[in-house]
Amino acid sequence: MISQELFGLDLALPSFPVLKSIRAIGMSDSADYAEPLAAKFSYRNTFYHKEPVFDIVNAPESENGRYDFVIASEVFEHVAPPVEIAFQNAFRILKPHGLFFFTVPYSLEAQGKEHFPDLFDCGIAQLRTGHVMVNRGRDGRLEIFDNLVFHGGPGETLETRVFSEDELRKQFKNAGFPELEIYSSRSERFGIVHSENWSLPMTARKQPFVFDRGSATEFMEQRGHMLKTMESLQARIAEYDEWADRVRNKMSEHDRQLLDRTQWALELDEQLKEKTAWAMMLEKDVAHHLELAKRFQGEAEERTEWALSLQREVDALRAGLARIRRSPWTRAGRALRLVKE
Prior knowledge:
The chain is α/β, with parallel strands linked by helices. The protein is built from six helices and 14 strands. The longest helix has 114 residues, at 213-326. 14% of the residues are buried. The model has no long low-confidence stretch (mean pLDDT 88).
């Protein structure tokens, strides 16, 4: 709602421009959006029971015409009667173009229900059977109410009424708001899906929102800063594109080199396979020749042994021949020329 009313766009809170000239106040807002709002605007979240305290039923005169927008989410069903004062004060503290962002549980019945219309001097007590409220009216009459409804659990936030849609329209109109919009449209992009056609969020307008001079100046300053940032980003993008082109060229060259080296590796692998096959054949040949060599060595050893044996026989024959030659008979035979030399 804030995005649509201020900027005419669907924006998430982090995308809001920072406009500290826009003043706003919230009433017990959730930190989920209170903290981002405080970062974007001069926004102050308040509470009824703790600091910073703000009571919409007793808004001081110093708050008159001070705020560009006011947020009351699930608050007005708890304020003390008469609730008309709360609507009037919301109108009073807004600037002429101010916006009132508003949610409460409400029905589509013709009339709402005021639980404690004469609430004046009251207190809540806890009995064994549950909580009760004791009220002394302005006329001094004493009232006791049971079956109390608390939002958030027993003893927390007391429900003082249930609105109807028609009653809310009358309350806004009587407070002075000429325009009221009920947001019934869906926005799946932001997770907004209404399953029912009641208890929908509302925006009450004093006038259509316009940026004042301070906000416009702040917005233009941010726009100028944003344009400079965009120029800087564009320059960086151009540098990145140039760098990316160089990287792509290098990658293309690397791809070519990788392709060449892959082809070379495949060829080398093929050569390695061929040489491995050749080496295996050579290894088989070497083993064959080693086997032959062992066989030849065995034969050589046998022949060597035979030669040695033959040599021993020859030596023995020679020794015998020498003995025969030296014997007397042989000398006698030579002398008689019966033995040849």
